What we know:
Elements: H1 20-32, H2 38-45, H3 60-77, E1 80-86, E2 92-98, E3 100-107, E4 110-117, H4 118-123, H5 125-146, H6 153-171
Amino acid sequence: MKLIDKSAGKGSAYFKPGRAKAYLEALEGIKAAGLLTAERVEQAARSPKSPIHECFEWDASKAAANFRLQQARQLIAHVYCVVSVRGPNGKSSSIEARVFHRVTDRVQGKNVSHYVTVEEVGESERYREEVIEEALAQALSWKARWGRYKELWPIASAIRSTARRLKRSRAA
């Protein structure tokens, strides 16, 4: 695989548009001086002059609160159960699944993300569509990240054809 242009970066929801190149250069500088690790990135970002300084929350109480929220999300996301599902062939089988899925509802005029059980997803067409949309977005993200490796092309192809099929069925 040949890298064509390292300066091209669209950024993400995580960082500011137009800053991808500065972030990339900072990370390459860290890597040039040794291993690129989270610890070394955080250390380099401590300097207010570092272009990656702005990617971090430096107020300790805010950072701690944000970290605890992330821990809560991880806890919710990693509780599993065994559910019975009916396959395309009509046979039932048991699979492991997350107990909770993140969905969005309007509450007092605002969109609020919260978690519902896998049973609630099965009972609500809207929740089911939202969860499938999220799963598809994650699959397409996986394809964009890993689909360039020829050993993984069959998986990337399956994701692509599933995305097309879902798009056609929604349009119908």
